[in-house]
Fold this sequence. Notes:
Layout: E1 3-4, E2 11-13, E3 28-33, E4 39-45, H1 48-63, H2 67-78, H3 81-90, H4 97-115, H5 125-137, H6 142-161, H7 188-197, H8 200-212, H9 216-220, E5 227-229, E6 232-235, E7 238-239, E8 246-247, E9 258-261, H10 264-277, H11 296-309, H12 320-331, H13 336-343, H14 348-355, H15 362-372
Helix pairs in contact: 3-4, 4-6, 7-8, 7-11, 8-10, 8-12, 13-14
Amino acid sequence: MATPLVRGMGSFFKNCRCTRQNRCAHPYVVRYRDGTGRQREETGFTTQQDALDRLTKVYNEKRHTPERHAASRREIGRQRFGPYAVSWLTRQRHYMPGSVRAVDQVLKSQVLPVLESRRINTFTSTVIDDFIMSMEERSVGLAAQQNAYDTLKKILLDAYRRGGIAEDPFIGVVSPEYIPRKITIPTLDEICALKEEGSEELRVVIDLMHGCGLRNGEAYAANLDRLVADDVYRITEQIDGRTRQPARLKHRKPGEFRESPLPATVRDSVLTYAENKGVDENGYLIRTQRSLHWGHSTMQYQWWSARKKAGITRKLNPYSLRHFFASNCLSKGVPITDVAEWMGHSNINMTFRIYRHLMPASVGRAARLLNEGL
């Protein structure tokens, strides 16, 4: 049971269930709110006096916080959501241009029409629940609801961490439940048919995507110098699908890279193309007559043309090639942690959520392996 102290000071207690906590050896825990209003806990205090001294120090630090900090928090809280969202987006320097465009579109289409004029310090869980209900009333699709909710959460939690909101407005809020549709995985015969009917450039792009797990834009940046070993392809950049200019990788800082396995068939495909078509002075392979690099429009035209010639009626898109890569890895027993790294996912939960059903029956397989060791 927590022991209350001076209002605003916090409390200290023990997490154990000992009958006489004042004599047991378990450490004390202190709980308090920091200068931004966020609840904190610290443990490891041997005596009540140690815990009280720590709470007293924190309390005094908060009381003597320079007034300019408090004024800054008040200023943030008084801002309207619209301008704050714009300033927040400009601060996301780690976002790729495509991500900025996507977030901006979500804000303009779903969030700002409802919340643009609301002051930051007036957001509560009730306001967010009402926003979710408004999307349901407008028959907004679940995927769009999830995107809008995620964007709103990032912005408001940023304001909360900076002191513009006193309490976490998402406590108790139930987010929209979006379940991704089942992915479509192309067969090897379909991939071979697409390569047979496609251009030489498309064949290299297909090989890099289904063989190494590259994204579209990463395959557009195919470069002979990225073959850092006979069986390793280093991914250092991507080509922005709209501007057709090199850009840093998604979920990576400038200069960062990742590496992916390079199957012999993919390596041969890249080297054959380089021998037949040549590379530019910087080592890039994929280009058009009008541009140094491919864009999404080029990929879309070439993909659908090859699909039509190959007589493929299933709704396959270029991203399906990444699904093939993941399926191929997981069916061969490759750990999902490695697959997530090779595909460039920022969070393994994304990989697990999308491809969990492709993994071999893990419980049954584990039971057989454990039995062999008994």
